[in-house]
TrEMBL record:
Catalyzes the transfer of a formyl group from 10-formyltetrahydrofolate to 5-phospho-ribosyl-glycinamide (GAR), producing 5-phospho-ribosyl-N-formylglycinamide (FGAR) and tetrahydrofolate. (6R)-10-formyltetrahydrofolate binds at residues 66, 108. It comes from Lachnobacterium bovis. Keywords: Purine biosynthesis, Transferase. InterPro entries: Formyl_transf_N, Formyl_transf_N_sf, GART. The record marks 151 as: Raises pKa of active site His. This is Phosphoribosylglycinamide formyltransferase.
Amino acid sequence: MLKLAICVSGGGSNLQAIIDAIESGAITNAKISVVISNNANAYALERAKKHGIESVCISPKSYESREEFNKEFISKIDSYDVDLVVLAGFLVVLPEEMIRKYQNRIINIHPSLIPSFCGKGFYGLKVHEGVLERGVKITGATVHFVDEGTDTGPIIIQKPVEVLEDDTPEILQRRVMEQAEWKIMPQAINLIANNKVSVIDKKVYIK
C-alpha cells in the first residue's frame, strides 16, 4: 500500500480529485496518510477532515529562519513514513535536502505542457495569462517528478487542453483543471502505486 503525503496551499481541488479517485477505486493500492498545508486557512484542510484524513499546518512564518522551517518540515514528512509526496498546489519551495532524500518520490502538477510556460514566475493564474498572451492554441497540464530545478524533473503524464478565443485566464484555468489536472494526477498516482513507473536517465517509462 503506497502511503501518500499531500501538500497543499489553497482550496485543494486536486486533493479532492485524489480523494475521489481513491474512494471510487480509480486509484488502487494507495492511501493518504496526511495532508500538509503551509496555510492554516486552506480549505484543503477542511476537505481532509471531512474524509477522516489527518491534516496539519506547518508554515515558514512560524519559524525564525527558513533553515528551521526546512528542518521541521522534513521531520514532519519523515514522521509519517510516506512512500510518495504529492505537491497539489503547494506554494512553498522544497528544501534541496528533502528533494535529494526523496528522489523520484515527490510529484508535482503544473498547469501547462512543460517545457512551455513553466519555471520561475510561472505559477497559478500567471501560467494561463502567459498562454493567452502568447496566443497558443493548445495548453494542458503535466505531472512530473520533482528535482532541484523548477519544473525540470522527469515528466510522467501530460494532457492537452484546447485554448478558446474568448478565454480569460480564469476560464482557462478552470478548463485545464477539469479536463487535465483532475484526471492525470490520480492517473499518475495509480501508476506509481502499482509499480508501473520507472525513471531511467531522467526519463519516465510506463509499463
